[in-house]
C-alpha cells in the first residue's frame, strides 16, 4: 500500500489551546506564538503542518526543555474536544479505549490506533499507512495519552509497561521514561503505548451514562462531517498541487478543475478554517521542507519550482513561517538524519 501524505491533513483545533496552556504555565503570554495560537478557532481544524510548526517553534523558544514531554503532561479533557469528554464519561478504561478507536479522527487524521492484547499487556498501536509525523508530535501524543488515562482514572500511580516509537532515540529519553513510568523503545515498527492488561478494568471516575450517550451522538455527527470533508480536501490539494506544478496556482483555475465556482470554493475552504492563500502558502512550505531535506536541488531551483520570482523572496517567506533560513533548515535536516 502506498504511503499517503499527511501534512495537509489535520488535527483538532482544541490542540491550539493545549499549546497556549503550556505557554501560560511559563508566564510567557507576550510571546508572538501565544497571540497566534489564541486566534485559532477550536471549532476549526489545524493542518498537521501548522501543528508541527507550532511545536517546532516552542522547542526553539525553550531549547533546554523537553517540550514534547511537558506539553503532553499538560493535557486535559478540554484540549481533546468531544472525544476527551466522551472517554471521560465512560464506565472503564476498556470502554474509553473502544470509544477512542471509533472516534479518534476527531482528534487527528492520519494513522489510526487499534487496541492490541499481548499476553498480560494491552496496547494502543498506531498504523503506518501515512507518511511519518514528527518526533516531537508523536511524543506529545504518547505522553498526552498516558497523562489523560491517569487523570480520568484518578490513578496517578499508573505507569506504562512500555512506549514504542518509530523514531531514533530522542534527546528527551530520560524525560519520557520519567513521564511514562516504563520502558521507552526506539526504532520500532510503529508507535505504541502499552499498559498492564488489568488497566482495562480500571473505573473512570467521572462515569456518566446519560452524558456518554449525548456525547456519542455528537461525536457521530462530527465524524460524519469529517468524512464528507475528506473527499473535498483530497481533491482540492491534488488540483492545487497540479496548478502549482503548472506555474498557475490561481483560485479560478483550481475551482474550474473542481467543477465549482470560485465563490463555492472560497466558502468550502472557509468551512475548513482556511483560505486559498493560506492553503497555497502551506503547500509551498510543505514542498520546500521536502526539497530541502532531500538536498537534490539548489535553493534557486527550489524557489523557481515553488513559483517565487527570486531566491530572496523564497528565503524571506520561509524564514517568516519557520523562524529559520532555508539553509539552516537544510543543515538541521542533515544533522537529524546522522543522529
From TrEMBL:
Protein name: Transcriptional regulator, AraC family
Annotated HTH araC/xylS-type domain residues: 230-332
Keywords: DNA-binding, Transcription, Transcription regulation
GO cellular component: cytosol
InterPro entries (alphabetical): AraC-type_N, Homeodomain-like_sf, HTH_AraC, HTH_AraC-typ_CS, Tscrpt_reg_AraC-type_HTH
Stored SMART domains: HTH_ARAC
Short name of one Pfam family: Arabinose_bd
Gene3D superfamilies: Homeodomain-like (1.10.10.60)
Gene Ontology molecular function: DNA-binding transcription factor activity; transcription cis-regulatory region binding
Amino acid at each position: 500500500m502506498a504511503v499517503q501524505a499527511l501534512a495537509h491533513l489535520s488535527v483538532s483545533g482544541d490542540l491550539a489551546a493545549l499549546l497556549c496552556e503550556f505557554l501560560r504555565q511559563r508566564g510567557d503570554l507576550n510571546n508572538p506564538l501565544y497571540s497566534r495560537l489564541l486566534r485559532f478557532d477550536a471549532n476549526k481544524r489545524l493542518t498537521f503542518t501548522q501543528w508541527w510548526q507550532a511545536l517546532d517553534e516552542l522547542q526553539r523558544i525553550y531549547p533546554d526543555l523537553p517540550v514534547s514531554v511537558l506539553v503532553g503532561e499538560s493535557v486535559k479533557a478540554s484540549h481533546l474536544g468531544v472525544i476527551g469528554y466522551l472517554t471521560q464519561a465512560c464506565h472503564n478504561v476498556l470502554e474509553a479505549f473502544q470509544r477512542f478507536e471509533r472516534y479518534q479522527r476527531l482528534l487527528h487524521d492520519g494513522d489510526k490506533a487499534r487496541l492490541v492484547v499481548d499476553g498480560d499487556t494491552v496496547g494502543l498501536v498506531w498504523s503506518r499507512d501515512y507518511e511519518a509525523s514528527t518526533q516531537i508530535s508523536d511524543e506529545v501524543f504518547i505522553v498526552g495519552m498516558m497523562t489523560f488515562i491517569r487523570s480520568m482514572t484518578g490513578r496517578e500511580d499508573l505507569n506504562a509497561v512500555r512506549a514504542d516509537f518509530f523514531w531514533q532515540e530522542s534527546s528527551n529519553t530520560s524525560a519520557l521514561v520519567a513521564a511514562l513510568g516504563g520502558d521507552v523503545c526506539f526504532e520500532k515498527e510503529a508507535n505504541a503505548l502499552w499498559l498492564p492488561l488489568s488497566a482495562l478494568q480500571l473505573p473512570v471516575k467521572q462515569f456518566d451514562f446519560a452524558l456518554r450517550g449525548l456525547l456519542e451522538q455528537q461525536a457521530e455527527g462530527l465524524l460524519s462531517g469529517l468524512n464528507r470533508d475528506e473527499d473535498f480536501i483530497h481533491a482540492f490539494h491534488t488540483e492545487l498541487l497540479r496548478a502549482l506544478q503548472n506555474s498557475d496556482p490561481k483560485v479560478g483555475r483550481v475551482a474550474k478543475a473542481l467543477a465549482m465556482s470560485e465563490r463555492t470554493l472560497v466558502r468550502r475552504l472557509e468551512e475548513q478554517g482556511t483560505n486559498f492563500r493560506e492553503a497555497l502558502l502551506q503547500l509551498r512550505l510543505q514542498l520546500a521542507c521536502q526539497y530541502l531535506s532531500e538536498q537534490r536541488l539548489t535553493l534557486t531551483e527550489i524557489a523557481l519550482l515553488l513559483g517565487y520570482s527570486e531566491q530572496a523572496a523564497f528565503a524571506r517567506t520561509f524564514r517568516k513561517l519557520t523562524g529559520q533560513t532555508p539553509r539552516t533548515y537544510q543543515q538541521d535536516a542533515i544533522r537529524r538524519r546522522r543522529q
